[in-house]
Specification:
The protein is an all-alpha fold. Helices cover about 45% and strands about 0% of the residues. The mean pLDDT is about 80.
Length: about 70
């Protein structure tokens, strides 16, 4: 997904998901965090583990959403 607050153009989400699938991971591209979480919850019956990697901006965005804060977009 595009990273909120990032100052550089993101890697194409669908291309990144395709690479992850080639590595044997279950991956889908999403437009934003809420859409990704909805997809995860709809596709999974039990507890899930979500790994956020590659961007402190994305990790900060996820934590802000968890706290009910709308992060500033640059």
């Amino acid at each position: 997904m595009p990273i909120p607050g990032a100052h550089e153009a993101p890697f194409a989400p669908e291309a990144l998901a395709a690479i992850a699938r080639q590595c044997g991971l279950d991956a889908e591209a999403s437009d934003d965090v809420p859409a990704a979480l909805r997809h995860i919850m709809a596709a999974t019956a039990g507890p899930v583990r979500i790994v956020i990697c590659g961007s402190l901006y994305l990790a900060g965005h996820m934590l802000a959403l968890q706290d009910g804060v709308t992060p500033q977009m640059n």
